[in-house]
Design brief:
Blueprint (H helix, E strand, L loop, with lengths): L4 H10 L6 E3 L2 E3 L6 E5 L6 E6 L3 H17 L7 H17 L1 H12 L3 H22 L6 E2 L6 E9 L2 E5 L5 H14 L3 E5 L6 H13 L6 E3 L4 H10 L5 E5 L2 H13 L4 E5 L5 E4 L6 H13 L11 E5 L3 H12 L20 H17 L2 E4 L3 E2 L7 E2 L2 E4 L6 H4 L6 E7 L2 H9 L6 E5 L3 H10 L4 E4 L19 E2 L12 E9 L2
Parallel strand pairs: 7-8, 7-10, 8-9, 10-11, 12-13, 12-19, 13-18, 17-18, 19-20
Antiparallel strand pairs: 1-2, 3-4, 5-6, 6-22, 11-21, 14-17, 15-16
Helix pairs in contact: 3-5, 3-7, 4-5, 4-7, 5-6, 8-9, 10-11
């Protein structure tokens, strides 16, 4: 399907905006009858009222998830049958691709081009990849003596709470629920309060695909209420979380305060993107560097927000990035030709603006942008912004802004570049641009980050590649077969042979 502005606007007029909780196979209001406003950052208007899950709703969903898990309707289903249901789920997402894309765009202001052409296809690929791998994983037998047999088997962990962010609403949800479901767990999904609609919608698609009632629930709500209560619940076995480091630390605390549930975290980043003077293609590097921070409005955990450039090419390279950024201005998110859309809400917009002002006060120079824009729309929009003369000790170089703000630093030699790259509490991703393969490999080994991109930045993200962080960027991994470890228990069975 080729998107046109007219097609998008026509589909939007026919949209139904989902708003209810999903528990035990059906949509329902919160027991407390509480709800919250769902406001679109595109124009500042209220979309609908979303049911707000509180403790009674959580208890109901957990009880249903536990019951179906113990009865084994899903957890004991042969992997090949689970596979067929997940593959059907992927087909249904493809069928409703434009509707789901629009729900995310309207919720958080992402461009329809991004949601339709990137988020949805990669979500479908992720589901299909996990569905296809599940009946090809084998358990182990230990190399014991003839008198014994040691069986090493993997079992679903139980009831999983998936708490996901707003920057990639459906995509990040799929990263959690696909591996959690395919391994036989029951899953309770809490979408971010800023982006609940696609999560609510896919619940009906899973039921349509044949998932037994109770296996999957959706509980919209905020972090301090719904998220906290899920993390403290003593009958939830695991929490998979993507979000800020501040909240990630709370999730760890809640685990210790409750039943020591297993925790997987993908938290913030302040990722370095190192451009050596021997970069094989400065034009390609400049384009990738601009996209790495201005794509998705800079609302990306792994954004290349620290551009670290060798001194002798700084001015020339920065001129290239600045020129490219002129074609990355925000515009109507519903227009398929728009590169960037809206910032998720006024709170985040104010945060970005605050950091830009802090950068100026710290002595950095704004080379490009630096302003709130498109105020006449009533929405939340910010210009692509580039800072020069940044020191790595500045707040704008150390703290995650989560917006289209690029800080530029310089270095003289390899050792200084690596030192600057590692001088942060985060370690999610990094980029290295050089034609010297030895330098590239050495840099990859010395940079403390979960993913290092060589002569690209986040090109061709693939379901086979695990993603996660060092240091305060997280624990565990999304994607790849490594993600399955988040949702499985290892059991050893020691048999004496007589």
């Amino acid at each position: 399907m080729t998107l046109s502005y007219q097609l998008v606007k026509e589909k939007k007029l026919k949209l139904k905006f989902p708003s209810d909780l999903f528990i035990n196979g059906s949509y329902q209001k919160s027991i407390s009858e509480k709800s919250f406003d769902n406001i679109s950052p595109i124009d500042g208007k209220t979309i609908n009222q979303i049911s707000f899950a509180h403790q009674e709703d959580i208890d109901k969903a957990v009880a249903s998830a536990r019951e179906v898990f113990q009865k084994g309707y899903w957890s004991n289903m042969p992997p090949g049958q689970r596979k067929k249901i997940l593959l059907k789920f992927a087909q249904l997402i493809e069928r409703d691709r434009l509707e789901l894309s629009l729900l995310d765009t309207i919720d958080v202001g992402k461009t329809i081009s991004d949601t339709f052409n990137a988020d949805l296809p990669t979500s479908i690929d992720n589901i299909e990849w996990y569905a296809e791998i599940i009946d090809k994983l084998f358990d182990d037998i230990s190399p014991s003596s003839k008198e014994y047999m040691g069986l090493i088997t993997k079992e679903p962990i139980g009831v999983v709470a998936a708490i996901v962010p707003w920057n990639y609403p459906l995509w990040m949800a799929i990263w959690k629920i696909a591996p959690a479901l395919i391994t036989g767990n029951s899953v309770i999904l809490k979408p971010a309060e800023q982006s609940p609609m696609s999560a609510i919608k896919i619940a009906s698609l899973l039921s349509e695909a044949g998932l037994p009632n109770g296996v999957f629930s959706v509980l919209p709500g905020d972090g301090p209420t719904t998220g906290k209560q899920l993390c403290l619940h003593n009958d939830i076995d695991s929490v998979a979380f993507t979000g800020s480091g501040e909240v990630g630390k709370l999730v760890l605390q809640y685990s210790g305060q409750s039943n020591m549930k297993k925790i997987q975290l993908e938290c913030g980043g302040k990722s370095p993107n190192i451009i050596f003077a021997d970069c094989p293609d400065l034009n390609a590097a400049a384009e990738a560097s601009a996209y790495a921070i201005f794509g998705n409005q800079g609302e990306v955990c792994s954004a290349g927000s620290r551009l670290i450039v060798q001194k002798e090419i700084e001015n020339d390279f920065l001129d290239k990035v600045a020129k490219i950024s002129k074609n990355m201005q925000p515009a109507d998110p519903l227009d398929p030709n728009s590169f960037a859309g809206a910032i998720v809400n006024t709170e985040q917009l104010d945060k970005i603006n605050k950091y830009v002002n802090i950068g100026k006060e710290e002595g950095a120079n704004v080379e490009v942008g630096g302003n709130i824009t498109m105020k006449e729309t009533g929405g939340c929009y910010f210009e692509p912004t580039i800072f020069k003369n940044v020191k790595n000790s500045m707040k704008i170089a150390q703290e995650e802004i989560f917006g289209p703000v690029l800080t530029t630093l310089t270095f003289s030699n390899f050792e200084e570049a690596i030192s600057i790259a590692n001088d942060t509490e985060y370690g999610l991703a990094a980029g290295v641009w050089t034609k010297d393969i030895n330098k590239a490999i050495k840099a990859s080994r010395e940079i403390r980050a979960g993913t290092v991109y060589i002569n690209n930045y986040e090109e061709g993200v693939d379901s086979t590649i695990p993603l996660g962080g060092y240091k305060q960027s997280g624990i565990g991994r999304d994607n790849g077969y490594q993600a399955l470890e988040n949702y499985l228990q290892v059991k050893s069975t020691w048999i004496k042979i007589t």
